User: Fold these one by one.
Assistant:
Number 1:
Amino acid sequence: MSLFSWNTVDSVGKWIDVRLPIISTLKAHTSDYPAPRNLNYWWEFGFIAMFMLVIMIATGIFLVMNYTPHVDMAFNSVERIMRDVNYGWLLRYLHMNGASLFFIAVYIHIFRGAYYGSYKAPRELLWMLGVLILLLMIMTAFMGYVLPWGQMSFWAATVITNLMSALPLVGQEIVTWLWGGFSVGNPTLNRFFSLHYLLPFVIVGVVFLHLWALHTTKSNNPLGIDLKSPQDFVPFHPYYTLKGAFGTVLFLILYCYFVFFNPNVLGHTDNYIPANPLVTPEHIVPEWYFLPYYAMLRAIDFNIGIPFTDIVIINSKLGGVLVMLGSILILFFLPWLDTSPVRSCTFRPIYKWLVFLLIINCFILGYIGSQPADASFGGIPLNWIGKLGTFWYFFHFLVLSPVVGRIERPLPLPTSIGTPVLGGRA
Amino acid sequence: MLRFLSFRHLLLRTALGGLALISLPLSAAEQEHVRLPQYDWSFSGPFGTYDRAALQRGYQVYKEVCSACHSLHQLAYRNLSALGYSEAQVKTLAAQNEIQAGPNDAGEMFMRPALPSDRFKSPFPNEQAARAANNGALPPDLSLIIKARKGGADYVRALLTGYEPAPAGFTVTPGMNYNKWFAGHQIAMPAPLTEGGVSYGDGTKASVDQMASDVATFLTWAAEPEAEVRKRMGIKVILFLVVFSGLLYASKRRLWAKLH
């Protein structure tokens, strides 16, 4: 008889579980979690995003072991990682491209939620926690981009922190406080480094709340209907663990293509030039995942004041900042802005196309954000299109979502997912 | 392999086609930058490797021409072993450079031949000295030049061969030189390569284009010394993932078939 037996394992497990129900809780929330049986591949991206978060933290921890947060040494320490640290290039390219792939996953995840109405009751808090994660990701990614201390790092830090100066009265004081000095310098790099290490763990915390809310309200599904019958569910394991593993591996192939064969295509060449406060790059652009926000920031190039007077209430800079911030904050209110009782756009003949239009609009804004501010397209200044796109973005949420929800006549909803999935034969 | 490469190009072209269509009506100045010549490099593509002979010739061009003004400070002489030199050869190549070391026990700095562990010797002690010697212009460090310029190796090779007389009506500021590929067309660096400017040990004819090609290859290696290892690992990783995803898909279908 061997000393080891599954009975022993089982009794140890029971001993622990009586005192701290960690095993049974994990089992209930991972393998036994009842998931709707009709989830399509768009539902993979929540898991993929979480997977990317883990990769980012894991590679980040090892990068920190070799990185020096000092204005004179940061750039060279990154190059040392690339050249002299064993597999340092792999760690850095995984981390650098991982940020982009993390955003790809999260953006798809958000639009999936938007299309299938995953933000509607009872999942409002779940959605809002997700928007909070997006905000935290944006801050983390921005501060991470500053760390290699290349030209784009430095000038992105300068441009973005300077936005705070748009705040009335205290703006300039806040900027000085953020910088820890009178320009972007070593104190700025140090605090960004510290916060870039901290925020991912805050994200982990909010992801935990996000999952808690998910497991309380249960997953939405492509039909967007409430599921009651037990036949509508399958245990998460093995059904979605296997389907999820397949989707994740496909996503990994895309990720690995960038890491191994085109690691710098998503970045900017100027960031391989060490930061130089005396030389401004010809054309300062953020990373691709910030381009739509950047286009919105630049779209507001006019002061808002009382008509026919010189009184300016909101100057163009503050206006741009408010619009850019508003583009994300507005998502917090989407559960109430959309008045339709139907969740899934599959059954919403008008709103469905509006969601597609919104996605296209985000791509157009992204393109405009990537171009110089004075660029034009066949004689039309691109910034005009940027203004139109910005207007459409807010028009979608503030006007179309509430109005279309009221006037649209949705298609008849199925009573259970058994009906469409089994083709009515069951 | 050829077929694979062209397929990859086709894919890339299709993907970029849409973008290119959008960017077509941009100003004429932008278009000029886009139409950089596309050279055929030994290191391009997922199976690309550095041509060792070109690397060694490129190092010779760097050493005999570029290093008069341009540093390469991210590199150490030991890195030259990747060019195909033996340990003894690397020691000899390093020792050809006198570098400052110290302080010694008496507290004084002294000169000694460089060791393989030393970084490449920089031509100027500091930025001010570099500017003073170059009419106020700063010759950039070349360690990352390929990654720091749009177009990479294509750009560097085109730039080095892009010196020509300024077109009629174009006034070149005194001390500057006309270059077809430089932004604004006025570059402080005079044409660095001349026909037969170096004499290659392997008998290759040292034409301007040959030297430009060799030094661009060398600088690509200098910017991405890990590229060969990276691509080799990438092929294994992608192959593994493709097979793995096939297995996962098959198991997933079998499992879900029970449900439908």
Number 2:
Amino acid sequence: MAQVVLKDLNKKYDEVHAVKDVNLHIQDKEFMVLVGPSGCGKSTTLRMVAGLEEITAGEIQIGNRVVNDLPPKDRDIAMVFQNYALYPHMTVYDNMAFGLKMRKFPKPEIQKRVQDAAEILGIQELLKRKPRQLSGGQRQRVAVGRAIVRHPQVFLFDEPLSNLDAKLRVQMRVELKRLHDRLETMTLGDRVVVMKDGWVQQVGDPLGLYGKPRNRFVAGFIGSPAMNFVEMTVAESNGALWVEAPGLRLRVPADRVARLGAKKGQSVTLGIRPEDLRLATSSDPAEITTEAVVDVVEPLGSEILLDLKVGQNVIVVRVDPSQRMKVHEKIRIAFIPERMHFFDAQTEESLS
Amino acid sequence: MRGGVLAWTVIGVLLVLVAVPFYWMVNTSLKTSAQVQSLEPYYYPSPVTLSNYGELLRGTNFPLWIRNSATVALGATLVTVVVSCLAGYSLTRIRYPGRRVLATTVLIVYLVPPTLLFIPLYTILRGLGLANTLWALLVVYPTFTVPFCTWLLMGFFRSIPPDLEAAAMVDGANRLQAFRRVILPLAAPGVLAAGLFAFTLAWNEFLYALVFINDTELKTIPVGLNDLMFGDIFLWGQLMAASVLTTVPVVVLYTYLQRYMVEGLTAGAVKG
């Protein structure tokens, strides 16, 4: 294994600037995940690391070696493609052995490695089959197997889960993680890189991204159902700082007063996750509650999602499944003050 | 069932249209001269004679022509397949300036009729000292087989996911190895179809063979058959016997490879 360093990485196609000044330092044995909407540049970044796309500007190092001009075969990486890219005309065994054959490994060694990988992935019985005789999950395992037999310095996975149905996805996610642990004796935690329009938005561990998103995009992208956003105006009255929108008036939590005080009279975006809202109780002060009208009730079994109308805004709230709500019912909800996020209305940067 | 009846009727009519000339060809080749000349048509030869075949094979240059045709057609096919595979691959997979223009040019070139080209081609061949040799045909036939087969194969290569190649390259193959070990095996039906087309086109070609070859020993079958007509005397029996023998290799090829061929054409058509 080796560390991977991306320095001011850029990729330009004729018209499109797909990857912009990406700087990442991926530690040895680290599990780093790139996320972002389609077209955000994550695949392109991955393919540049693999050597499948030329680098327009910047530098890529793998294990302290600059690999900009090395062809993929000399980079000592393995990649699992989104559509798996198994060789349809070869058996599972040959698919997994291909990389070793290309590198002129002796036959007994190839056999041993393929067997070992097949065992780890639980696909020993499939070795003689062709890819078209496999289910989606099995194909995925073969694709992973093809990567791990090589014992490469770096593993690249391009959306390894996106082609699987929900149940398999959860299962494979656990297995990938377990595989990583087993292969690596993991010493470092996971980090997530959020990308948009070719820019890196934020890098951090999943909980950090969830709890302290740096801007509105990250806040909305991480977490499901997505964070609610409400355009509000900062106002001062009775010696306290408030944010106001039609039908909604909330007191700014004490620790945000300093940042938001500078925005008096200007608009900011309030962000609040559905799980950070609850049904108000009589003891909740008015400054963190508001009245709302139930618009849609979406029971999901373990929870209920309510679409609430607050003024002109729709706010999604996650509530306990024991609650019985009716459409058009008037209720009061409370905001958990320390979970409120504020974003600059223009720059969309966090004001927390 | 009414749909079935209609379908079979249409197929039956088509079959008659296609098969009757073939039948008449075989029929005539087995008739005696007298039966051929008879005003009362013989729907089947009676008695059957193989004399036309005997005379064709012993009394004419037909065996030579077969050999010439085979040499030229196989040689041209080989050249075509190699060049078209590489060209088709390059035009679909490798990014370079002018690639689109080049791809379109390939198609346009194919559309230029041979009747326009044979004069300049002849000048070139004479300059090269190749006129009136089999090399002339070997060099010229790829001018129409390569564009066609390249076009066919481009559709084929395009239908193969680029990630397969990327995977092979990450796995340690260089571009040529990825092409040979992954792309080519997957494109095999297309390559086969292309080869078959090239062979058929070259095997049946008439105009260039007529213009570029003078010596009767160097003629290919389609042109050689001309020698079986003396003014207004047609040796129908021998002509038809020659036609049968010419058709046989192609029929055999298609019978065996037809499955791949259809596969190849449709894959090319859908994604091309």
